[in-house]
Amino acid sequence: MAEQNIRLRILSYLIAAAAGSALTVAIVTREQAPSPQPTQAEPKQPPKVEVPKIPVIPVPPPPLDRAALLAAAASAADATASGGAMPPSNAQLVGRSFILRMPFGCAGEMTDGADDAWAGWSFNPKSRALRLRARANSLADTEWVKTLAADMKFDAVEGFWIRRPWTRADQCPAEGGVLKDVAASQGQRLAIAQFYSPEGPRTLRRGDRPYSSTVKLEEGEAPSARGYQLQLEGKISGFADGQPIHCFQHDVSLAPRCLIAVQFERVAFVAPDKPEPIVEWH
Asked: What angle do CA 260, 266, 269 make, to 5 degrees?
């Protein structure tokens, strides 16, 4: 019995010793374990700066010149002669600006009863006075223009015949010669004109008033040996169907007669190859 008690005591001591060792190891382990390092904050990104977008301003197309107008008229005439629809490419020209120069006075000074009496010039060597004149055509009473206008309301149509529409040249012919005014004959096939509505201001119309001006040339300065030019500027206005040019053909053996509908904004007299106008009207 005494021996059994001794064994139990020894076993109790061993169990207690083992428990103490485990506690000691746990304490030491906890003390030796590295403490967790604080998490480093992510570096702050600089705020994004919104760069304002610069608006892209569309560049307007250049003004239509004589070559572009003649090309559009040729397309319209071809459609009329063939019985086809007006070219959609022409409709895109409505609203475009144009600059058209037409030569006159190529053979020298105008004389009374001259064939090219629509425009001309004269010079007085004593007073040094150069007189320039051009007269617009009234087309409101012509049947072919009324046919082209269809349902458009107007009480005046004023404009000019484009002389020599078969060439893009806007200066006098190199060989000289008179550019005859053959508007009443079959020779004139293309006109450029403005339709004036009954409600519009009448002060914008020329009526019977020609574009006329007299300027004094400097001593020793002579009139242009290459004639002068009438410069027309404005915007393509077009007809009621959105087409800028309409043509009429009453005889299939003849080329169609066409009209470019525009709004005139500036008329000027210019000398060939000189950018500054001699005189202008707005």
From this structure: 100
**DSSP assignments along 151-171, one per residue:** T---SEEEEEE-SSTT----S
- Does 21 share its domain with 140? no
Do 97 and 219 lie in one domain? The reply is yes
- Which of 12-16, 95-99, 197-201, 243-247 shows the lowest per-residue confidence on average (mean pLDDT)? 12-16
Q: Could you tell me how far CA 40 lies from the centroid of its own chain? A: 62
What residues form DSSP beta bridges with 213?
132
Asked if residue 44 is part of any domain, the answer here is no
Amino acid at 74: A
Q: Are 238 and 90 in contact (CB under 8 A)?
A: no
CB atoms within 10 A of CB 63: 14
For the ranges 122-136, 137-151, 166-180, 261-275, the lowest mean pLDDT is seen at: 166-180
13 plus 86 within the same structural domain: no
Task: Report if pTM > 0.90.
Answer: no
64: three-class secondary structure by DSSP: strand
Domain holding 3, by residue range, is 1-31
- Within the chain, where are the H helices? 2-32, 66-82, 88-91, 143-149
Based on the domain organization, do 242 and 144 belong to the same domain?
yes
Instruction: Classify residue 133 as exposed, middle or buried by CB count within 10 Å of its CB (0-12, 13-18, 19+).
Output: buried
* Largest distance between two CA atoms of the chain: 166
Give yes or no for residue 33 having a pLDDT over 80.
Answer: no
Give the integer Cα–Cα distance in Å for 242 and 88.
10
Domain membership flag for residue 177: yes
Coil, strand or helix at 198: coil
Who has greater pLDDT, 10 or 207? Answer: 207
Q: Taking a C-beta distance cutoff of 8 angstroms, is the pair 228, 269 a contact?
A: yes
Tokens of 228: 């002068």
**Structural domain total, the chain:** 2
